[in-house]
């Protein structure tokens, strides 16, 4: 009898051990769904190219791909119509809020936890300051929804800010189209993998009630002129869409837009 109970108990223990990870995966999946469901995939315009501004940027021409090697590229964009009480929100606030959702949201939660636990150094570029205690961001609470992280800041030991540019309201009214942006590089310039993300807010003077939120990404082998793995690129496209949707969802949760 005792042996039977121990046998049943062991089987139950194995079942429980298998059920716990499954339950955690389901819980995480539900949290991701609820955090991005406000932004439907069909609203997002996806393309395989980069803007000319990003192609010619210091981030790509000098840091990531100075030799012009073969690279992957993708771009996601979505138009947001701002209610009247949100039209005075600065580009920096919109970008900072998007970045908060992108890096501090539910989609990145598992990867973020692994990085926070291991504390790796996965980004290094000769043209940027080396990682130090003063320029690292490890906690989600360190992301502001009002200001962008300064150039050289390192996020989770993996992404480093290489460029920040934002247009003030006076400039946006004087030009037919303006673009504020922030670049994050990843990988290492002496390795076989390097790349960058650019997040942008684009405004048109013809339609001040609308802004375009743009995500651009590219990656390459900076030391050898080889194409990157197709499987890796397919996973990136799926993951990037989730992250982009969460970034935009974070903007939509702002009091000025959700009221």
Could you please describe the fold and organization of this structure?
The chain contains eight helices and nine strands. The chain is of the alpha+beta class and 259 residues long. The chain has one domain (38-258). Strands 1, 2, 3, 4, 5, 6, 7, 8 and 9 form a nine-stranded mixed sheet that branches. Helix 4 (91-104) crosses helix 7.
What's the total helix number?
8
Structural class, please? alpha+beta
The percent range for strand residues is: 15-25%
What is the overall shape?
Answer: globular
- Please, how many domains? 1
Mean pLDDT: 91
Counting DSSP E segments of at least 2 residues, the number of strands comes to 9
List the helices and strands and how they pair.
Blueprint: H1 2-36, E1 45-47, H2 52-55, H3 58-64, E2 71-81, H4 91-104, H5 109-118, E3 123-124, E4 136-137, E5 154-155, E6 159-165, H6 169-174, E7 177-188, E8 194-204, E9 210-220, H7 230-252, H8 255-258
Parallel strand pairs: 3-7, 4-5
Antiparallel strand pairs: 1-2, 2-9, 5-6, 6-7, 7-8, 8-9
Helix pairs in contact: 4-7
Offer a few descriptive terms.
single chain; 259 residues; alpha+beta; nine-stranded mixed beta sheet; 8 helices; 9 strands; globular; disordered N terminus
Briefly say what this structure is:
The protein is an alpha+beta fold. It is 40% helix and 24% strand. Strands 1, 2, 3, 4, 5, 6, 7, 8 and 9 form a nine-stranded mixed sheet that branches.
């Amino acid at each position: 009898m005792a042996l039977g109970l121990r046998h049943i108990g062991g089987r139950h223990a194995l079942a429980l051990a298998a059920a716990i990870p499954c339950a955690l995966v389901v819980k995480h999946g539900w949290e991701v769904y609820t955090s991005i469901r406000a932004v439907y995939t069909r609203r997002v315009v996806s393309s395989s190219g980069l803007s000319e501004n990003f192609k010619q940027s210091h981030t790509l021409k000098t840091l990531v791909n100075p030799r012009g090697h073969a690279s992957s590229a993708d771009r996601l964009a979505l138009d947001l119509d701002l209610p009247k009480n949100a039209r005075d929100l600065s580009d920096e606030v919109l970008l900072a809020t998007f970045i908060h959702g992108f890096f501090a949201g539910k989609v990145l939660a598992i990867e973020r936890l692994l990085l926070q636990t291991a504390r790796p150094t996965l980004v290094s570029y000769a043209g940027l300051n080396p990682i130090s205690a003063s320029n690292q961001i490890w906690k989600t609470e360190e992301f502001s929804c009002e200001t962008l992280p300064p150039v050289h800041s390192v996020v989770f030991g993996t992404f480093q800010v290489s460029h920040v540019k934002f247009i003030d309201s006076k400039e946006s009214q004087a030009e037919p189209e303006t673009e504020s942006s922030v670049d994050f590089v990843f990988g290492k310039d002496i390795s076989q993998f390097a790349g960058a993300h650019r997040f942008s807010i684009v405004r048109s003077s013809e339609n001040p009630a609308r802004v375009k939120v743009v995500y651009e990404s590219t990656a390459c082998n900076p030391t050898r002129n080889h194409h990157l793995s197709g499987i890796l690129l397919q996973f990136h496209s799926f993951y990037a869409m989730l992250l982009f949707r969460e970034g935009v969802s974070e903007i939509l949760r702002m009091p000025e837009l959700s009221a």
